[in-house]
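fyi for ur records
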Amino acid sequence: MRILALDLETYGGVDLKKTGVYAYTGSPDFEILLLAYAFDDGPVAIIDLASGEKLPQEVLQALTDPTVIKTAFNANFERTCLTRYLSTPMPPEEWHCSQAHALTLGLPASLEGVAKCLKLPQQKMQEGKQLIRFFSMPCRATKSNGGRTRNLPEHDPVKWELFKTYCKQDVEVERSIRQKLNNYPMPEQELRLWFLDQKINDYGVRVDMRLVKNAIRCDALHQEKLMKEATHLTGLDNPNSPAQLKSWLEDKHGIQIESMAKDMVAEALAEVANPIAKRALELRQEMSRTSVKKYEAMDRAV
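which gave:
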């Protein structure tokens, strides 16, 4: 069976780590910048989509050919990006994820980590993170960069060529990892679970956005009320600041507390008798609750 190894470099205005790949690829400014690929043991090629190059017909056909296995490290990213880019479903059964395979063997979750563990001659390029920050994320507008909010290939051709080399090398590293791991095949049950996991994430989960928005709004109103009371009680500029509150407790009430961590605050509350200091700690406890964090995560992921 033929194998197509892939790696993508992309651009998106939303934070991939915070929103997840589905909201990321659904953002209006999402685009694929580079696509590196290799068939079987053949040479790695790079398609510079950002500069106007087009995907070769052979690659386009292979991407939708069920007899060709597509592979990538964290294949969910490439699969979802290409689904969006080509407006074509990418069934997970046609893909192999080297990251999932590595994890079944107790290896790290990162390409770099696995390559180091396996002591591969080909390693991930260290410049990658810097290049991704430069080309794949919005930049801050400054006088020196002419007020732009995004770096394009023409803004630094040398870095762009390095970015292309980085993308190609990731394909090389993924292929080397896959060839090593093939000596320890992924169990059929784990493979089926990965297919199922992909389908579940593709379908998503229905969310009551009215409830989500109102929960976040209620929390904001409650936090505002708590902050007002804490400011009035302590006289601090920011009573939610651990450093400020620690100093206030020590200077005003002679109470020393190691940190404002949840367990430390609970321990202090059990011992403090002074009603003002006790209330300040209770307010700190209330303000640091994470009850709505899941709602905020849902809101970002939609």
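DSSP finds 14 helices and five strands in the chain. thats all i got for now
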